[in-house]
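Good morning,

Attaching, inline, the C-alpha cells for the sequence recovery test we're adding to the shared suite. The designed sequence is right after.
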C-alpha cells in the first residue's frame, strides 16, 4: 500500500518544483534564525536569494557532525525552545550526544514518513504492530510509535529487550508487523527456536529493520527463520530519525527516499563533488520542511549510492542502496579497505555457519591482524559432537579444520587479506539485547 500516493508517486518534474520551493524556504529560515548558518552562508558568499534552481544547492556549504558538537546542545535550532515539543538524542558513541528537537509540525511530518515506511512494508489499518525499537531518547521507538498510530495500527510499544516476553506478546496478540534492528530480529529468531516454537505459527507478515548495517544474506536468513518479509529502513537523528527512506515490500531493492521532505545527494567524501546516480559515495541530506532543526547538506558519513530507475511499486522517488560502510569506520587493515558487510556476505554464504560473528582487529607488533570470530550452526555443532576448541592445535577434528580453511579462503577471496578464523560454539558471539550491536572491536585504537 502507498500511504501518500500524491507525494510518493508524484511525477518527478512536479516533485522538483516542490523541492525547490521548500529548499528556498528552508534556506531563508536558517539564514534568518540560525547564526551558524548565517555565518556559513556569508563565508561562502551566498545568500538565500541566490538559490534559483535545485542545482544551486551545491553552492551551499556542508553541515557536519562536528558542527552539532560545536553548537551543543541546541545551537542549530531554528525555533525558540517553547515551540519544541520533543527532544531526542543519538546514541552518540564519542563525546556528547546529538540533540534533535521537534515542533508540532515536525512531529506530524515524522509520523507521516514513518507511516509511509510501515505501509510500504505492507501494513494495513487495523493490523497489529509490535514495536521493538528502543523507546526513550533513541528515535526508533517513539518515531515508529507515532507512525503506527497515524496509520491506524494497534501499536504494542514493547521497546527493545526481554526477548521471551516479546515472543509471548507475538504469540498472544498476533502482530503482523515487527520493527527492530536486524541483529535483534536474529535474536528473536534464535529464541523462538530454543523455545521450540514454529515461526510460521506466529503469523508475522513483515519486519521493518534498520538502524544498523545488514546484508542481503542476513535478510534471507531473517525472512526464512521468522517466516516474513523484511524491508530495510534508514534514518538518522540529525535528519529526523527513522523514516528518511524505506524499501517497498514488492521489490525490496533500495530504500525509497521521501524526497518531498529530504533532499538526497551523494558526494565524493574526499573532494565534496556531487556524484551521479549509481556511483557510491557519502550520503548528504537537506531537510526541506523541518522547523526546529533544519539541516542543510548534512554529511551523514554513510556510504551508499542512489538509483534513479523507476521502481515496480509505483513510487517515483530515488532509491538508496544499502549502507555499505561509513566514511569514518571503514576498517583499513594492512592497507586494505575492509567493510564489515563484505565479511558478513562471505560468511553467510557458508551453510555451516550461523549469522553471529564478531570482528577483532589488533596490531601486536607492526602488522594489523583481523580475527573473524564466527559461530557455527547448531546442526554443524551437533555433527561434530558438540565441542569446539578454539586453540589452533586442538581444532584438529577434520570437519572443523576443513571448515576453518574454507572460511579463510572465502575471506581471502572477498577481501584480498589473510585473516585468523576462530569458530565459536552456538551462543558464543555477542547478541543484540534489543538495540544496535557492536560487531567490530578495534583494539588498535585503544
Ligand atoms: O538509527 C534511526 C533509525 C531508527 C533508523 C530505527 C532506522 C530504524 P541514529 O541512532 O542517529 O538513528 O543512527 C543513525 O545509523 O547514520 C547509519 O550509520 C546507521 N543506520 C541507520 N539505518 C541504517 C540502515 C537511527 N538501514 C546511523 N542500514 C546512520 C545501515 C543504518 N545503517
Amino acid at each position: 500500500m502507498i500511504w501518500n500516493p500524491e507525494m510518493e508517486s508524484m511525477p518527478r518534474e512536479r516533485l522538483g518544483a516542490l523541492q525547490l520551493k521548500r529548499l528556498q524556504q528552508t534556506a531563508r529560515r536558517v539564514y534568518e534564525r540560525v547564526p551558524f548558518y548565517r555565518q556559513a552562508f556569508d563565508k561562502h558568499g551566498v545568500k538565500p536569494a541566490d538559490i534559483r534552481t535545485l542545482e544551486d544547492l551545491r553552492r551551499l556549504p556542508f553541515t557536519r557532525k562536528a558542527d552539532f558538537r560545536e553548537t551543543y546542545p541546541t545551537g542549530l535550532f531554528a525555533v525558540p525552545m517553547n515551540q519544541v515539543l520533543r527532544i531526542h538524542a543519538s546514541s552518540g558513541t564519542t563525546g556528547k550526544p546529538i540533540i534533535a528537537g521537534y515542533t508540532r509540525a515536525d512531529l506530524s511530518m515524522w509520523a507521516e514518513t514513518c507511516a509511509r515506511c510501515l505501509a510500504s512494508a505492507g501494513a494495513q489499518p487495523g493490523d497489529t504492530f509490535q514495536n521493538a525499537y528502543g523507546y526513550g531518547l533513541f528515535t526508533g521507538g517513539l518515531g515508529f510509535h507515532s507512525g503506527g498510530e497515524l496509520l491506524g495500527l494497534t501499536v504494542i510499544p514493547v521497546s527493545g529487550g526481554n526477548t521471551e516476553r516479546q515472543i509471548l506478546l507475538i504469540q498472544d496478540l498476533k502482530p503482523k508487523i515487527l520493527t527492530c534492528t536486524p541483529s535483534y530480529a536474529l535474536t528473536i529468531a534464535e529464541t523462538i527456536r530454543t523455545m521450540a516454537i514454529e515461526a510460521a505459527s506466529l503469523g508475522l507478515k513483515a519486519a521493518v529493520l534498520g538502524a544498523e548495517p545488514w546484508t542481503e544474506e542476513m535478510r534471507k536468513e531473517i525472512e526464512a527463520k521468522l517466516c516474513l518479509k523484511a524491508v530495510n529502513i534508514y534514518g538518522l537523528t540529525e535528519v529526523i530519525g527513522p523514516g528518511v527512506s524505506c524499501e517497498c515490500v514488492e521489490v525490496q531493492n533500495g530504500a525509497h527516499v521521501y524526497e518531498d521532505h529530504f533532499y538526497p545527494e551523494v558526494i565524493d567524501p574526499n573532494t565534496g563533488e556531487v556524484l551521479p546516480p549509481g556511483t557510491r559515495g557519502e550520503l548528504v541530506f537537506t531537510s526541506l520542511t523541518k522547523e526546529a532543526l533544519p539541516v542543510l547538506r548534512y554529511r551523514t558519513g554513510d556510504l551508499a549510492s542512489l538509483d534513479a530507475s523507476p521502481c515496480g511499486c509505483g513510487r517515483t522517488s530515488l532509491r538508496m542502496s544499502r549502507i555499505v560502510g561509513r566514511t569514518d569506520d571503514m576498517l583499513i587493515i594492512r592497507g586494505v579497505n575492509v567493510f564489515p558487510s563484505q565479511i558478513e556476505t562471505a560468511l553467510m554464504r557458508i551453510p555451516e555457519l550461523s549469522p553471529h560473528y564478531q570482528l577483532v582487529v589488533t596490531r601486536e607488533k607492526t602488522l594489523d591482524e583481523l580475527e573473524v570470530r564466527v559461530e557455527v550452526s547448531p546442526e554443524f555443532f551437533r555433527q561434530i559432537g558438540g565441542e569446539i576448541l578454539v586453540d589452533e592445535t586442538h581444532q584438529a577434528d577434520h570437519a572443523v579444520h576443513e571448515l576453518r580453511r574454507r572460511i579463510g579462503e572465502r575471506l581471502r577471496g572477498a577481501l584480498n587479506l589473510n585473516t585468523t578464523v576462530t569458530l565459536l560454539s552456538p551462543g558464543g558471539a555477542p547478541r543484540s539485547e534489543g538495540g544496535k550491536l557492536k560487531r567490530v572491536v578495534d583494539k588498535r585504537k585503544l
